[in-house]
Amino acid sequence: MSNETVFSNATVVLEDRLLPNSSVVVRGGLIVDISEGVSRVGEDFGGDYLIPGLVELHTDHLESHYSPRPGVRWNKTAAIQAHDAQIVTSGITTVFDCLRMGSDEDGGFEHGEMRDMADAIQAAEKDDRLRAEHLIHLRCEVASENVLQHFEDFREDPHVRLVSLMDHSPGQRQFQTMDQYTLYYKTKRGLTDEQFARFVESRRTASNRYSTKHRDALAEICAARGITVASHDDATLAHVEEAKGHGVKLAEFPTSMDAAKASHKAGMSVLMGAPNVVRGGSHSGNIAATDLAENGVLDVLSSDYIPLSLLHAPFVLADRFEHISLPQALSMVTATPARTVSLDDRGRIALGLRADLVRVRRDHGVPVVRSVWRQGLRVA
Question: pTM of whole model > 0.85?
Answer without folding.
Answer: yes
